[in-house]
Design a protein that fits this description.
single chain, 368 residues, alpha/beta, Rossmann fold, N-(1-d-carboxylethyl)-l-norvaline Dehydrogenase, domain 2, 8-stranded mixed beta sheet, 17 helices, 8 strands, 10% strand, binds nicotinamide-adenine-dinucleotide, binds SN-glycerol-3-phosphate, EC 1.1.1.8, oxidoreductase, NAD binding
């Protein structure tokens, strides 16, 4: 990018939880944006290496980070450190969010809360909780009402190369979404705000399941038509599931929705796509997880999602097929054939679209 970075009017003190691919890539982005950045890791080896060499020994290994970023850990950040922060950024897998927030809660000054930004994309195993629910359970409604969620098509390794990137940022509090956008926004990193955190969270979590499906199809040797079908029908399933949660169906057309779905379903950079591709080629799930070296949230999300769609009675045949391949030992090629053998159905059956159409059909005397 030729455009110079914009220095923030008010540089923020930011503590990033998680020093994996995304935590360290966002620390890099914020450090380069003239914020004062700390990054917590549970690994003493990583902390020592990062502070000495300005490189992450485990993730984005080729990248040199700005010397201003300080790694902290392995002990959990102290109340003294947390209370000096303007922003807490959570870049840990969804299954670790409850544990992290439970440890964090006693360190928070509830009268002077920092801005809390979450970037994980998944559903909690066992509870089906979204991160907003986990925040509510662990930190209470005062924190949940102002928490913000950053999501969208954003591979870590492309962000550190300053590839033009855009994301959605959502919160129940529009003011806090704006504040988070101000922290991140740069000429190479555009932020768009939304007031639908549930839709944004669901979109980010669910696209990972469809990325596995898309990878499976490619691994089986299917081509472009098949991928376009999976992306489009995946979007229909995501939107149907989202509207049952009260999410705005338009959120699924955002960067966090179709933007990230398209990215993750069509690139071998995606870990979720890679899991699917290797399954399609005949590898065993456990072997893939053991050698991936990084989290693929779709694997755990597929489990929670299956329970959700069964409970709500929502039609989501692709998500159900991914679950059966991952957890019930269904043969991928056979399950793909079964999906294609489903009877024909109406293409769009969103509850909201249905409501409007029914009024018109009543006026036309076609329906009661
Ligand atoms: N990598 C990307 O391009 C990308 C982009 C957007 C969003 N995300 C999302 O960000 C989240 C993190 O992904 P990532 O790519 O950094 O994963 P990663 O596997 O590269 O790193 C995860 C990091 O979190 C740490 N961790 C795991 N459990 C923890 C716990 N209980 N407490 C504290 N730390 C814990 C791990 O040690 C590791 O350092 C995921 O939800 C992912 O979907 C990733
Ligand atoms: O590597 P994946 O599949 O976790 O995808 C990473 C991000 O979610 C892309 O936006």
């Amino acid at each position: 990018m030729t455009e110079a970075r914009k220095s923030p009017e008010h540089p923020a003190k930011v503590l990033v939880f998680g020093a994996g691919n995304f935590g360290s890539c966002l620390a890099d982005h914020l450090g380069d944006s003239a914020h004062d950045v700390f990054m917590w890791s549970r690994s003493a080896r990583l902390v020592e290496h990062f502070n000495t060499h300005h490189r992450n020994p485990d993730f984005l290994k080729d990248h040199e980070f700005p010397a201003c970023i300080k790694a902290v850990g392995p002990e959990f950040p102290s109340a003294e450190l947390v209370r000096t922060m303007d922003v807490l950024l959570f870049a840990i897998p969804t299954q670790g969010v409850r544990e992290t927030l439970t440890a964090l809660k006693p360190t928070l000054d509830m009268d002077n809360l920092p801005l809390l930004i979450f970037v994980n994309k998944g559903i909690e195993i066992g509870t089906h909780a979204l991160t907003l629910d986990i925040i509510l359970d662990t930190c209470g409604p005062e924190v949940a009402k102002v928490a913000t969620f950053l999501s969208g098509p954003s591979f870590a390794k492309e962000i550190v190369r300053r590839q033009p990137t855009s994301v959605s940022i959502a919160s129940l509090s529009p003011e806090h979404a704006e504040r988070a956008s101000d922290v991140f926004h740069q000429p190479w990193f555009r932020c768009y705000t939304l007031d639908d955190p549930i839709g944004v969270e669901l979109a980010g979590a669910l696209k990972n399941v469809y990325a596995i499906a898309s990878g499976i199809a490619d691994g089986l040797g299917f081509e472009n038509n098949t991928r376009a079908m999976l992306i489009t029908r995946g979007l229909a399933e995501m939107t149907r599931i989202g509207t049952t949660y009260g999410a705005n169906p338009l959120t699924f057309l955002s960067l966090a929705g179709v933007g990230d779905l398209f990215l993750t379903c069509s690139s071998s950079t995606s870990r979720n796509y890679t899991v699917g591709h290797r399954l399609g080629k005949g590898e065993q799930l456990q072997d893939i997880i053991d050698t991936l070296g990084s989290v693929a949230e779709g694997v755990s999300t597929a489990k929670g999602l299956k329970e959700v769609i069964d409970e709500l009675g929502v039609s989501a045949p692709i998500a159900a097929a991914v679950y059966e391949v991952l957890y019930e030992g269904k043969v991928v090629a056979e399950r793909a054939k079964e999906l294609m053998s489903l009877p024909p159905m109406q293409e769009l059956e969103l509850p909201c679209a249905g409501k409007k159409a029914k009024i018109l059909m009543r006026k036309l005397g076609i329906a009661e």
